[in-house]
Here is the input.
Amino acid sequence: MPDTDRPDEPRALRGFRVVHVFDISQTEGAPLPEIRPQLLTGDAPAALWGALAAQVTAPGFTLIREHCGDSNGRTDPTTCVVRVRADIAGAQAVKTLALELAHIECGHTGDAFDSTGCRGRAEAEAESVAYIVTAWAGLDSGAYTVPYVAGWSGGDTAILRAAAATITAAAGRILALLEDDNGGEDPAPTSQANQPDLLTADVLRRAV
Here is the structure.
């Protein structure tokens, strides 16, 4: 409440005061922390690379392990070549391969897809699918996926919610074939249906 000797006196807005603020460049001290994707370490679940590779090559793509510039992987729809860096740990390699396969399954390599204008959406969708696939295999990729998706989506979880159907459908097709390769068994029996919602919650918690 206002501190005044005359509480019944009417008050009116008479103007605005100048308040000085600072840009981050005018401050000193340690830089603010940034949440960056953390490369996965360690080995991948047995046979997962081969099973994902088979799904990549089935529609006619060639898979190569080689340098990818500043990326961990690349998919070229013109030449139908998928590249995955050769100098990353097995766990990161299969996670990246799952992402590149997801680009194919989500339709990002089709002629009608605007890969330039919809790049953020494509990366958020593909990485979300990779998250579900690796979770199915018992591999936690959250340290990489959550910051990655948060960055490409701009922290807007509405993008993930809008893409939930695409993410779930693409992941479902990939997992169906993986389960066939695994004798119909799920190595990490969790509900895949709620994975987009769980990822959305993680993005919201870490990106805002």
In short: The helical segments are 48-57, 90-105, 119-136, 142-153, 157-162, 164-181, 195-207. Residues 1-7, 10-27, 29-33, 188-193 have pLDDT under 50 and may be disordered. The first helix runs from residue 48 to 57.
